[in-house]
Write a structure and sequence with these properties.
The longest helix is centred in the middle third of the chain and has 21 residues. The protein is an alpha+beta fold.
Length: about 120
């Protein structure tokens, strides 16, 4: 059974709203993390938030009308905090040496490098 637009609108989707200062002035850019291409702007944070909610509603309506699935909200509960990545032996060696030099584990050092 298909959900209605209002049911999707009540789900805890992730909004990203950032202030932009460029040649056109200062404004706020908003997007829904889970919805590719769902974006909007506003002169204030509040306006950008209202505009992205409207854009989100239209995005969901278009997906449902087209017979497409609407992604579920992303939340931290579904993640273990662990992932495996393969890297070249030379990079593995370099990172291990740098971690040893800093006196930390390779995991700690990699976390540090990923967070900067």
């Amino acid at each position: 059974m298909k959900k209605k637009v209002s049911e999707y609108m009540d789900l805890p989707y992730n909004f990203i709203i950032q202030q932009i200062k460029d040649e056109s002035g200062c404004y706020y850019y908003a997007r829904v993390l889970e919805f590719d291409g769902c974006q909007s702007t506003g002169e204030t944070y509040e306006e950008a938030f209202q505009n992205i909610k409207e854009a989100m509603q239209g995005w969901i309506e278009a997906k449902l009308e087209g017979g497409f699935k609407v992604p579920k909200p992303i939340n931290a509960n579904g993640f273990s905090g662990k992932f495996v990545v393969r890297i070249p032996k030379s990079l593995h060696c370099k990172l291990t040496m740098e971690a040893n030099k800093e006196g930390v584990s390779l995991n700690q050092y990699t976390l540090y490098k990923l967070s900067i």
